[in-house]
Amino acid sequence: MKLSDIEFYAMNTAWRRLLQRRFEFPLFCRMGLDVHNRDVLEIGCGSGYGAFLLHTQKPRSYVGLDLMPEQIDLARQNYPGYDFRVQSATDLSGFDSASRDVVVIFGVLHHIPAWRRVLDEITCVLRTGGSLFIEEPRGVELKMFDFIFRWGHPDTDFGLKVFERYCSQQGLHLIQKRWTPLLTMYHWQKGGK
Question: Is 176 helix (H, G, I), strand (E, B) or coil?
Answer without folding.
Answer: strand
